Amino acid sequence: MSTRVEQDRPARGRDETAPAAGGLPGALPAAVLAGLALVASNASIAVAAQGSTLATTEATLAAAERHPVAMELTSAFGMLASLLLVPATWALVLALRGRVPRLAAVGGWLTGSGYLMFTVLSADSLLLLAVSRTPGDPSVFVRAVDEHGSVTALVAYAVLGLGALVGGVVLGIAMLRHPDVPGWAGWLLVLAEPVRVAGLLTGMSWVPVVASAMLGTAFVAALRTTR
């Protein structure tokens, strides 16, 4: 009888109501592949940028003309990263919410929404690539984008920037407050997006590659330890 009772008793200190990462099939492989795709996307744009910040449409168009293959790979890997990172984000939310439900939810909504809008950036890169391959005066396209941009596009980029930046920090804090997640993984995620932004602002094009590796490693570590 006592043996049966011990078997049925929940492990001490374990939250039996907390969903595991395994509750979303394929979550861990998705996180691994998403991290690799994000690294590859940023590495491709670093090759195309050659140290430039690509802060203007004209500069990005010139990069597409110089390195069309790298620009296409940037979009392809970027879309793959979005496809995998959004469900991986929600798998992480499920894994964390038993201990830090509010932080996990806020971070999940922001991060998931931000990386969903990453597809807009990838589609824009493909459009620039098509323009770069078309004979004629590209200045017309540059003026159209720079002088007649839509409010919808502005909102999409704002959601991407703020969602990824703030959401990553919030999810990282949630990981730091979860007893099963290694502290180093939480700090990797907290720092990943600020590191990415710093690289973009300074023109250090390989810094976002490092930030992507930080993000992917943090996701994988958290999902592995909370299964």
Report the principal-axis shape.
Answer: elongated
Distance between the termini: 30 Å
- Per DSSP E runs of 2 or more residues, the count of β-strands stands at 0
What's the overall average pLDDT, rounded?
85
Percent range of helical residues: over 70%
Q: Count the DSSP helices.
A: 10
User: What sequence of helices (H) and strands (E) makes up the elements?
Assistant: HHHHHHHHHH
Structural class: mainly alpha
Low-confidence stretches: 1-22
The tally of domains stands at 1
What quaternary form is this?
single chain
Summarize the main sheet: none
Q: Quote the beta fraction.
A: under 5%
Radius of gyration: 20 Å
How would you sum up this structure, described in words?
The protein has about 230 residues and is mainly alpha-helical. It has one domain. Helices cover about 75% and strands about 0% of the residues. The protein contains ten helices and no strands. Helix 2 (about 25-50) runs antiparallel to helix 4 (about 70-95). The longest helix is centred in the middle third of the chain and has 29 residues, at about 70-95. The radius of gyration is 20 Å and the shape is elongated. It starts with a helix and ends with a helix. Residues about 1-20 have low confidence and may be disordered.
